[in-house]
């Protein structure tokens, strides 16, 4: 294994692309698998858990890894595509070791300190095997410190690595998940052992959990929501987009759905109920009830300020919808659309109404999926307004809403996604972004 760094930290490996000898990307790293038998001898790293295209997780033995550098992993190209199944003698370094409570013993720095594991390093031994060699530990915060002091200790000097914890925390695993795209975090949570999954879900804030749930298959969404208390489940549903929340609530038992809707904020619940009232796979059921809506007296500067919201998807940020009061859906009379590409060419002080596209065809809520697809394709749109019989705006159907309904059931388990490499091989300092 040539040109490999002498020490590689596990948290830095997660997300690295994996290439075959021809330079074609075949997957990305999701975890390390180690045989942890004692706290004295350094555990051998058996291999990598890799996610290949289609979200399938496979095992890549370290004997198949030919090189690890600062931004990628190279393999022999001979990979067994059988789905990875963890054995009882194996430990997932990221999924199971992070956040474990340990004590540093010995005579070196940090002696007697008790803290939690936030990273683990592996090195190549003389016999060419990779072994877990160092453990990065963070002390609890003291006084006014936002973070506790950190230490990196030899494996043999750390006690508690083989002890099973019934109440293992999730702080540092959540930190790693928060740096991932929601779709990637959803995949990792799906494959965690049940007790770790519960700890992670409990530690994620409501907004982040909502983002992750939107990327999960229906059965995962229902399973996770069913283990939350009713109050928190309602809070998480409020953070989800209304169309995704409506789809999820529709999968729940009627009595559970009614309970959660009653606990949600009235305005949020009303949007969800309205979407659930439409026939499945129609524009009304697919639409987003909260596009960017402005009055005719809004300026182009106002419009640009609204679409800068990082929570908007690119399709929702592509245009603003001009309506008369009220500006909450269903609005007053729908006047037209302001395309951001057009607005960027106008002076910021100009009224949006002066650059309005009032010729755009609209969709009715009962329009079927094929009609919606044909409409977006015919007019080269990424979003289209949905109006009622009186010309009031009800919402907007976006191309991503349409794809969610057109793709076959279970598509989230088979989709390929672009890889997102990480370049450093130093331990991840808790609370400090990678740079």
From TrEMBL:
Query: By its UniProt entry, which SUPFAM superfamilies does this protein fall under?
Result: CBS-domain pair, MgtE N-terminal domain-like, PRC-barrel domain
Ranges of residues in domain CBS: 356-414
Question: Which N-terminal residues, if any, form the signal peptide?
Answer: none
- SMART domains in UniProt: MgtE_N
Listed A to Z, the keywords are:
CBS domain
The record's annotation in InterPro entries points to: CBS_dom, CBS_dom_sf, Mg_transptr_MgtE_intracell_dom, MgtE_N_sf, MgtE_transporter, PRC-brl_dom, PRC_barrel-like_sf, SH3_actinomycetes
Q: Where is this region: Disordered?
A: 413-435
- Its domain of life? Bacteria
Q: What is this protein called?
A: CBS domain-containing protein
- Native source species: Nocardioides cremeus
The taxonomy runs: Bacteria, Bacillati, Actinomycetota, Actinomycetes, Propionibacteriales
């Amino acid at each position: 294994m040539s040109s490999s760094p002498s020490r590689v930290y596990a948290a830095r490996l997660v997300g690295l692309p994996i290439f075959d000898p021809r330079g074609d990307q075949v997957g990305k790293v999701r975890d390390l698998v180690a045989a942890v038998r004692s706290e004295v001898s350094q555990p051998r790293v058996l291999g990598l858990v890799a996610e290949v295209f289609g979200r399938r997780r496979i095992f890549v033995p370290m004997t198949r890894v030919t090189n690890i550098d600062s931004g990628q992993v190279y393999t022999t190209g001979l990979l067994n595509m059988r789905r990875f199944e963890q054995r009882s003698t194996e430990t997932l370094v990221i999924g199971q070791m992070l956040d474990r409570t340990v004590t540093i013993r010995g005579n070196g720095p940090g002696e007697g300190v008790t803290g939690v594991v936030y990273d683990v390093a592996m090195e190549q031994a003389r016999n060419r095997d990779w072994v877990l060699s160092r453990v990065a530990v963070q002390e609890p915060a003291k006084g006014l410190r936002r973070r506790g002091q950190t230490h990196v200790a030899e494996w043999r000097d750390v006690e508690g690595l083989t002890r099973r914890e019934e109440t293992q925390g999730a702080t540092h695993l959540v930190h790693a998940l928060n740096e991932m795209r929601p779709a990637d975090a959803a995949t990792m949570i799906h494959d965690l052992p049940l007790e770790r999954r519960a700890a992670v879900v409990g530690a994620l804030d409501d907004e982040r959990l909502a983002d992750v749930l939107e990327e999960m298959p229906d059965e995962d969404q229902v399973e996770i929501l069913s283990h939350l208390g009713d109050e928190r489940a309602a809070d998480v549903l409020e953070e989800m987009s209304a169309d995704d929340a409506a789809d999820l609530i529709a999968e729940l038992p009627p009595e559970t759905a009614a309970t959660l809707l009653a606990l949600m904020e009235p305005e949020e619940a009303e949007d969800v109920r309205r979407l659930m009232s439409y026939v499945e796979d129609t524009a009304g059921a697919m639409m987003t009830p909260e596009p960017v809506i402005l009055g005719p007296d809004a300026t182009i500067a106002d419009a640009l300020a609204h679409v800068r919201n990082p929570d908007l998807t690119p399709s929702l940020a592509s245009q603003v919808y001009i309506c008369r009061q009220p500006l909450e859906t269903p609005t007053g009379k729908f006047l037209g659309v302001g395309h951001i590409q057009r607005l960027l060419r106008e002076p910021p002080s100009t009224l949006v109404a002066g650059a309005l596209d009032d010729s755009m065809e609209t969709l009715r809520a009962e329009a079927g999926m094929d009609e919606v697809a044909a409409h977006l394709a015919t007019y080269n749109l990424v979003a289209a307004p949905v109006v009622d019989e009186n010309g009031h705006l009800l919402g907007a159907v976006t191309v991503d809403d349409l794809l969610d309904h057109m793709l076959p059931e279970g598509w989230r388990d088979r989709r390929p996604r672009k890889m997102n490499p990480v370049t450093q091989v130093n331990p991840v300092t808790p609370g400090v972004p990678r740079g």
